[in-house]
Structure formats: C-alpha cells, structure tokens
Predict the structure.
Amino acid sequence: MTNALPPVLGSLSFGFYPRPLAVTAGPVSIETLPDLDKAVADVVGDEGVERDWIYPPLQEVRNLGGGISTRPYPSRIFGLPKTHRIAHSAPNSTDHLIFHIWVLSFFTGMRLTSTEAGFLDATPIKPGKLVDFVLLRGGVPKAVELAEAFWVKHRADPRRAHIVAAAIHALFLGQNPVALQYERFLSLYTAFDACFALAQGMHKPRGRITHSGRVAWMCGLFGMPIPAWADPNIPSGPEIASLRNETVHEALFMGEPLGFAIHGVGSSGNLTLEMGALVCRLIVALLGASASTYVRTPGNTRQRQGLDLG
C-alpha cells in the first residue's frame, strides 16, 4: 500500500492508476499519492498478473490442525493500492466524489475505486484496456468537467448518477478476459438496459419501447448508425433481442445450454466487441458529449478512436 496523505474534508483516496495525475478542473482536483512508483512495481510484479490484467490471489485458510492451506480457487473480490486522491471544494455528498471516480474510470479505461476491495474477478493494470477510445484535446480535465456538469444538472435525481456507474460497471464486466461469451453478452446487454433507463429518463420517448427497439431508439437519439444486429426492421427482428430472450428465458445461447456454443463461428463478426463499442459511445453521449464525432464512429473494428471532449 502507498503512504496515504492526511485526510482532507471532501476527498477520497482511490486506485489503482499507474501514472501520475495532477488535475484541477473547476471545484475538483486530483493529485498523486506518495510512493506511486513502489505501488506500481508491486502490482506489476504480482504473480497474479497476466497480459496486463491482474487476478485475485488464492485464498489462505486455517485448517483444523492450525496449519495454513491454500484453496484451489481465489476470492473473487480483491483490493489494490490507492495511488491518487480526488478532492472537491464543495461536494454534495460522498456519492458526489464516488461518481467522479466512476466517470474517471470510464475515461481512463480502467477500473478505479475508493473501496478497500473494489475489484471483481480481474482488472487491467494499464489504462485504455476497457474502452475503444483515446482522449484527445483537454484529456482528463475535460472529462472531469463533463462529470461535474452531469452531476450538477441531475443532482435533483441522484439515481441517474447511479445508473451511469451501473452502465460503466456492466461494460467493464463484459471485458473480463476469462468470461465465457454468453457471460460477456449478458453483461453488455445489461449495460444497454442501464443506458436505456438513463436515456428514457432524460429524453422521454413518445410511447413504450420494447427490448427489440431499445438499441435502435438510442442510436436514433444520438444520430448513430444502427448495427445490423440491432435493426428492428429486419423480418426476423433484431438478432440481439432474440439472443437475449433465448439466453434469459430459456437458458440457451446459440441454441445450446449456456457455455457450450458461441456466436459468430465462421464469420468475420464479433458481436460482443461491437456491443462494447456501442455502449462506450452511448455513455459518452449520455454524459453530455453527444456532439463529439467519436459518438458516430464505426464500432465494428478493433481500431481505437480519438475522443475529443471539446
């Protein structure tokens, strides 16, 4: 663990972020805690690191004879060192700062948390692993300003900030490198549902929108191209809705029990990759940057896009 700076009213220590940050954006400031280099070295050198992801350590348990043994499976929830501190000159609550950390997580492309054990199953130790964009002009300060503007605009309905955090978390869960495809699909579909809940609260639709039309409605809302798998106008209906219904209601994925079949065999498509890319664009738009050209860039490629927040 790093040496924490003295507590300050209206501040939270968080991590893990492997680079220095010194940001002042309106009432919000972010600083790097002491011993960042040591914290990074400890995490990078951990035996649980593989391909820029860190996994939870194996559990040690005391047996009846008083000895220590290791279980053959890890605890799914684990912690990492705190590396930075965020402060606000006049926060409405601790939730205000936690919301900023969630949004900063999204724009840095890696999970950040102020809790002692805020990581589930696996988390990247390098920025940018969980999103398909790179911040351009203004970078992190602009992202902080965007988060603060969203909070101020919607503070009368704090549930909206919680839904933003939920959508980001579901997006991150959908990137878990050891998850099966149906698990990634369900996490990302849940992220769509969170985005829809937020979108319909902020932009009232004229009538009820079923699951089959939700993704297309959100795409239309922000001028995004509708992916073929979400097009409600094809005769059989959008593929994503059919997959969701079969998976949730019948415990089948691609016609087989969960985990025994995958989507896209023999094709060049990658459904979960495209779903994750679209969720990224929806979150950017819903946070208030819908005018960014990134929002309307294609999401059917592994190419990283530039994101200019203005």
In short: The first helix runs from residue 36 to 44. The chain has two domains: 1-56+68-130, 158-310. The radius of gyration is 21 Å.
